[in-house]
Amino acid sequence: MIFDLNSFSKNIICENGLSDCFVETVLNGNMLDLYITAKEDKPEFIELEWCFESDENLFVLGDAWERSYGELEFKKLSDNDRIMPWYFTATDNKKCYCFGVKTQPNAFISFKYTPNGIKAFIDCRNGGRGVELNGRKLHLATFVYKQYDSCNVYSCLGDYCRILCDNPVLPKERVYGGNNWYYAYGNSSYEEIISDAKVQAELAQDIDNRPFEVIDDCWQLYSCRGPWLPNEKFGDMKRLADEIKEIGARPGIWVRFLNNTDSSITDEMRILRKGERKYLDPTHPAVKELIKADIERIKGWGYELLKHDYTTCDLFGNWGIDLEQNVPKIDGWNFYDTTKTNAEIVLDLYRLIKEAAGDMYIIGCNTVSHLCAGLVHINRIGDDTSGKEWERTRKMGVNTLAFRLAQNEAFYMCDADCVGILDDYIPWEKNKQWLHLLSYSNTPLFVSCTNKLTAEQKYDLKEAYKVYQENHTFRPLDIFENLTPSQWEIDGETVNYTW
Length: 499
What we know:
Elements: E1 9-14, E2 22-28, E3 31-37, E4 43-51, E5 59-62, E6 75-76, E7 84-85, E8 87-91, E9 96-101, E10 108-114, E11 117-123, E12 137-148, H1 153-164, E13 176-179, H2 181-184, H3 190-203, E14 212-215, E15 220-222, E16 225-230, H4 237-247, E17 250-255, E18 270-273, E19 276-280, H5 285-301, E20 305-308, H6 311-316, H7 342-357, E21 361-364, H8 369-372, E22 378-380, H9 390-404, E23 413-415, E24 419-420, H10 428-440, E25 445-448, H11 455-468, E26 474-476, E27 487-490, E28 493-496
Parallel strand pairs: 13-14, 13-25, 14-17, 17-20, 20-21, 21-22, 22-23, 24-25
Antiparallel strand pairs: 1-4, 2-3, 3-12, 4-11, 5-6, 5-8, 7-10, 8-9, 9-12, 10-11, 15-16, 18-19, 26-27, 27-28
Helix pairs in contact: 3-4, 5-7, 10-11
């Protein structure tokens, strides 16, 4: 995979035809900056194509728009028909080749790599229509190409991800502890959270770095939506946060900012898509103020970690697994502010949340991975694991940890999701392996459990929490053979798991 980064063809697509839209590129070594300008035109898409012959025996791995969904894998180039968001790596088992864009671009960008060359597809729309730049010159992205004289894919991709992100924000210490979703599934109370916090404090009793107890969807007035005020099972949220701290844990909380049924919200403040107005439009000034007020209230209660969820789905109408080249898939709608691209709108939302949150840790869930890098401390890199279905934990958890691990500490801390412990749904010998893998992974370690732990589970969890406090060398080995690798190198030794 050797090509001239500055030798490409381009195609510009605007909503009402092409008249004054202009695309400019600036080459700087192995990086190519892409700019766009338009006065009357409303740009939608740009296509760039680099033509060259490539070895069909290359193995190729792409990334995902937001979370992955158990689908990531290395595929032969000759069989590779996938759209690959943000970046990809290719290897011939002698060298590695990486190509993509730096984090926080101002467009949604994907790639298709075939034996005939590389196509980049740049979606610079506003909603499902062309963006109104009004003469503004916009830097869309910085493309980066890097060749490595090594076949250690994990090492090469880890280095490449660090090149792509100039400004990661990382927690000051390891983040771990409890999250109540995978045993409660939305049914919890003040008393149960206090009980959960006591469990976490006991499991980490010999560790100076205190665990979190994260209250997931369950605490607010209505299931999975605002207004972000406590229901009758929770009551005083400040008192709850204070009591969690007194117990010896750190309080965290879940929110879904763009789904809110507060009576003060007008139709103008909601996105109009497919003839309905449901989700909040973050480009509307009143919505921005509402989100800031929600965060200020939660921060005032004393919560130290904020987990915000559903933003990709609420903004664009689809989960990441369903998005293809066009983000979003639905045409003919726009945001309140029509002058910014979808990527700019997402970035503005994440920046607003980060600024309002202050010194709180931020976990992004259903967040656009390449856009939230540098704006969240932790990102949920895969779809939900489970407290009931082992197959879901294996598929979603192990796959995403193996194939997105290179992003850890390069973009953010990678959260491959929880160890869900609920009665006897999942045999402990299976969950114990997932716990073991996470404890050595240098990624966040969250466990969802009640006080109904067996002596064996309690012992294993205590040991895992201790192991997790130290740095380890860690990488998957059988990544070309398995979607859920079972061989991992941990601290220089090969460990085999039976998923």
